Amino acid sequence: MSTEGQHRNSQPGLRIGLLPHSPFPDYSKIWVGVKQQSLELEPPAECVFLPKRVPLFQIMEQMHLDAVLGHFSSADDIHFVHSTGMPAISVFRGEFSRHPLITHDLVSHAELLLGYLLEKSFQDVCFFSDQSNSHSPELIHTMSTMMEAAGGTLHVFRNGDRTKKRGKWVLQDQLLDLGEWLRPHPKPLAVVCTDPNHAQRIYMVCEACGWKIPEDVVVAACMGSEQQMDFLEPHLTRPITNYVEIGREAVRCMHRILTDQTSPKPDVICVRATALDIQPSTDQNAIQDFIVRKALTIMQEHLAEKCSVNELAQTLRVSRSTLERRFQKVLGKGPATKFRELRAETALRLLTQTDRKMIDIALECGISDPSQFSRFIKETYGCTPLEIRSNR
Fold first, then answer.
1. Which CATH class is domain 106-239?
2. Where in the chain is the domain with CATH 1.10.10.60?
3. Is the peptide bond before 280 cis (omega within 30 degrees of 0)?
4. Residue 319, pLDDT above cutoff 90
């Protein structure tokens, strides 16, 4: 039997190999989703972390794996997958042209950021990126369309050849160009960057020009890890990437491939962001308490799951009473009440802004029973989900 045939066999208790490391700091959250979804399969799948720096072809047979998920950085591993037809899915970043990629939806990131800035009455927004950034055209198109529909303007600045000397980017020239670009725009000004590295340059320009963040210049980034965002001072507003759902979707996609015994298609499945992490870079009144901010981020990332106050406190390594006290001090309500509010807000947004099925919205908000979801919305907003959708 061929290697491909061996890997395509659908057997009870699928074994899925997980590539052990990645350069992206939030990969651990993706593996949480992978583990959770694997246990929900019937029968449950077994996830196996593969040894570091050992080529796939050396361990594939002895570990009896049915498939592999992860970030494929080794040329040998990529060649092995291509040559054997082994089921493989790239997670978060793609290396294969013939296999699925499960990643974040940057369009939803841009939509969330622009919607937030429009709510704050910004009619002129600046977007800063590099010419080499492959995501820029899609982000620019999305934000330009939204700004035009709202009667506003998107101003785009992308680093080009005039800030390049001897094949290298010169930071000083970049900052001078950025300062010249930002200076004529009336303040307060909103600037959206592709990532924290670009945001840091905006911070440096603001400091050199005497502009305060966020009083004079509001700054946000379309993507970046939590660690990168919190490295900047003031902390940077960002969309919350649903890493857990990315991991879950990777397992669901792999299960479809293995059970249907169909050839993997080069699909790109994008998981939408559902909320923003509002930080002092855009709002002077943003929550400063680290524990409360971290708790809110965890809640946003786990809206579809059960999340008790005790579990939340344990994750944050504080007592339940400490967590309750800090929530009451900062928000005037307990964590359980806030979690319920976040679910209700997400449900309302999905009901009014998307055409997704009611059951899918309910599941994303952690409710599996449609009648219970209807009661939840009725109690919160005074009308049923169908009434909300028909009046949007």
1. alpha beta
2. 287-390
3. no
4. yes
Q: What is the CATH number of domain 3-104+243-271?
A: 3.40.50.2300
287-390: CATH topology: Arc Repressor Mutant, subunit A (1.10.10)
- Digit-coded pLDDT (tens) for 204-252: 999 989 999 999 999 999 988 777 776 788 888 999 888 888 888 999 8
pLDDT at 66: 84
- Kindly report the number of other CB atoms within 10 A of residue 46's CB atom: 15
Alpha helix stretches (DSSP H) within the chain: 3-8, 27-40, 56-63, 75-84, 106-119, 136-149, 171-182, 196-209, 226-231, 243-260, 290-301, 309-316, 320-331, 335-353, 358-364, 370-381, 385-390
Q: What is the pTM of this model?
A: 0.74
Query: Which residues in the chain are classed under CATH 3.40.50.2300?
Result: 3-104+243-271, 106-239
Q: Does residue 73 surpass a pLDDT of 90?
A: no
Compute the distance between CA of residue 92 and CA of residue 18 in angstroms, rounded to an integer: 13
Average model confidence (pLDDT) for the chain?
A: 83
